[in-house]
Amino acid sequence: MATIANEERAIAPFDVSAERIFVEDDWHEMFALLRAEMPVSYCPDSAFGPYWSVVTHDLIAQVELDHATYSSSYALGNITITDPPPESNLQNFIAADPPVHTAQRKVIQPAFNPSQMRMREEQVRSFCSNLLDGIPIGETFDWVDRVSVEQAIGMLCILFDMPHSDLTDLRRWSDYAGGVSAEHMTDEWRAEWMGQMQQMLARFDELMDAKRGEEPGDDLLSRMVHSEAMGNLNPLERLSNIALLIVGGNDTTRNSMSGLVLALHQFPEALEKLRADPSLIPNAAQEIIRWQSPVLHMRRTTTCDTELGGQHIPKGEKIVMWYNSANRDEAVFPNGDTFDVTRDNARRHLGFGHGIHRCVGARLAEIQIGTLIEEIVNRGWRITPQEGIERLSSPFLRGITKLPVTVEAI
């Protein structure tokens, strides 16, 4: 493997994988400086080892589109900044390159085709309306628990054809599966992680075994067990793909729904514009995904020596694409720190990734977020955050774990 000395690399002046900056929501100026002065930079020392940061919209898109040079494969390091040990190195289709990625994605893709989404939209509207009917007006409650989790994971139960009583377990398994943190790089936590993943696999194997004896259906589990590409996965592969579907179907949606409350409070003019012109609601759904950037990064590994943004990068090095930075890139999104429901290019966000790995469930997430915005507008709600907001300690997911609010109908 070719190597280059650190003095020949653009060394970042700070470690943007430090979880503190996301817990304190103090990352904006750091990434703005990197975008302006070193769009590709190297951090030689972090809790997750050395890594390259790519922070501009154009260069991240370039990496995403060149999967031959920038691999997602679990065999080379997987898709997060961590370097997982073999027992927790998830082997799902997002952590694979073609042709494996292509074959397995084709199994899941039909569950999100236009005809399926028309049916799901009706379910989302009914589910969301019933959920919000139970919200206490004028009382303080946790928006994350009562709305974001219930909506996002409740729809997952429908997609998996699981009883709603599994919601609490799904939330816990999702939190473990997506739990990228320096605090989790211990033998004790990894043992706990494996215990939770084994519980998850046992429950899903029970459900999938039942599906094998039935005619193929439209739910995700039926599509998996009745397909050639995913019907005979080994236990680790089954665990890995289930974990992916849970995290992918949950975290983007629930964290955008929580971020929405903060955005509407910080930019009250946005809600006034939506009330005056409800046709802006679909664009507002795109804008909150851009503004919140619920997935902070994805990682790739170079398969050969390459050049990117004026930097020579040897084979086998860790490339971290910071979506939160791309989605605030002033070259694409002027006044990018502002939540602007009239932004004419909000859809260009990279919150769902780009290229062959773009989130397969993106349309469903857009429907759920748009429906929530529509309900808030139609009910005439004003949602006010209270003290005690807590953010996820992770460089992978931009999550809000606790969001006390009060709701007023005005």
Task: Give a structural overview.
The chain has helices at residues 20-23, 28-37, 57-65, 100-108, 114-133, 143-160, 167-177, 187-212, 220-225, 235-266, 268-276, 281-292, 323-326, 362-379; strands spanning 40-43, 51-54, 70-71, 141-142, 297-302, 306-308, 311-313, 318-322, 381-385, 390-391, 400-402, 404-409. With 410 residues, it is α+β, with helices and mostly antiparallel strands. The protein is 46% helix and 11% strand. The longest helix has 32 residues, at 235-266. The strands form 4 sheets. Strands 1-2-8-5-3 form a 5-stranded mixed sheet. The chain is globular, with a radius of gyration of 21 Å. α7 (167-177) packs across α10 and α10 (235-266) crosses α12. The chain is built from 14 helices and 12 strands. The chain has one domain (6-409): Cytochrome P450 (Cytochrome p450, Orthogonal Bundle). The mean pLDDT is 94.
Low confidence ranges: none
Number of helices: 14
CATH topology: Cytochrome p450
N to C succession of SSEs: HHEEHEHHEHHHHHHHEEEEHHEEEE
End-to-end gap: 64 Å
In spatial order, strands of the major sheet run 1-2-8-5-3
Rg (CA only):
21 Å
Characterize the main sheet.
5 strands, mixed
Number of strands: 12
CATH architecture name: Orthogonal Bundle
Strand content: 5-15%
In the CATH scheme, the class would be: Mainly Alpha
The CATH superfamily turns out to be Cytochrome P450
How many domain modules? 1
Q: What's the average pLDDT?
A: 94
